[in-house]
Amino acid sequence: MARIALGIAYDGAPWRGWQTQPGGRTIQDTLESALASFLAHPVATVCAGRTDTGVHALEQVVHLDTPAERRMESWVRGLNALMPASIRVQWAHTVPAEFHARYGATSRNYVYLLRSHRVASPILHNKVGWIHRPLDIDLMRAATQRLTGEHDFSAFRSSECQAASPVRNLLRLDIQQAGDFFLFRFRANAFLHHMVRNLMGALVEVGKGGIPPERMTDLLLERDRRKAPATFSAAGLYLARAEYPSQFCLPSRAVDESLSSHLGLNF
Predict the structure, then answer these.
(1) Candidates 11, 29, 52, 136; catalytic one
(2) E strands within 11-51?
(3) Which residues have a Cβ under 8 Å from the Cβ of 145 and sit 6 or more positions away?
(4) What domains are defined for the chain?
């Protein structure tokens, strides 16, 4: 029995998220159906992070076990031939039995791409978040300084979140601007359900001048989701990369390289 890791990119707009559901229309259901055809036996997959409806991935990492033998390039070409164009395997790699796509990840990276312009772009629909108001990047950067580190993120977790603890270590949160576009980078040991989108809602509210950056500290201490700004759109959210110990030698791209390859963006 071999354990195989796959790096997968997908456009989340047509799908009901990663996790399998009755009736299908999820990325996991579609991938496992293709795997069953490719390997001639049913396969269960485990992913690095379960993305929600409309959320994209530049590099989702998945593992599976199979007795079948295939060349690594066949994993890529064979599976891609069996899936819709919105889902593509980027690479395949044999890993030892102790590798685990979810529990073995040391950190996860998300990016959020936001456009600030008075009119939304139909070309970028579902690929980029949008707000018609101008945003103050200095105010938003001041807010990020109050959010990084280990905190109880109860104010930024969904009511449906099933995590045993709301404590997470937000290792990185920074913002870059290029014209009308803002790129938000998030890195943490793990994320709560809707955590990034809820943080985005708060940061955008700060950028609009609706609340001061200092309010982030209060929200963390109050631990009350009802007092925080609304959840922001899923459209511009991308699972960019999961990181693993170097011993597994996974062929993952740096986040900036993935942004350039998939979206043609250089920040």
Answers:
(1) 52
(2) 46-47
(3) 213
(4) 2-104 (3.30.70.580), 107-238 (3.30.70.660)
- 182 Cβ contact list (under 8 Å, min separation 6): 113, 114, 115, 116, 135, 137, 140, 175, 176
Say if residues 107 and 125 touch (Cβ distance below 8 Å). Answer: no
Respond yes or no: is residue 52 known to be catalytic: yes
Each of the 267 residues of the chain gets a pLDDT tens digit; together they read 999 999 999 999 999 999 998 888 999 999 999 999 999 999 999 999 999 999 999 999 999 999 999 999 999 999 999 999 999 999 999 999 999 999 999 999 999 999 999 999 999 999 999 999 999 999 999 999 999 999 999 999 998 898 999 999 999 999 999 999 999 999 999 999 999 999 999 999 999 999 999 999 999 999 999 999 999 999 999 999 999 999 999 987 788 888 888 888 787
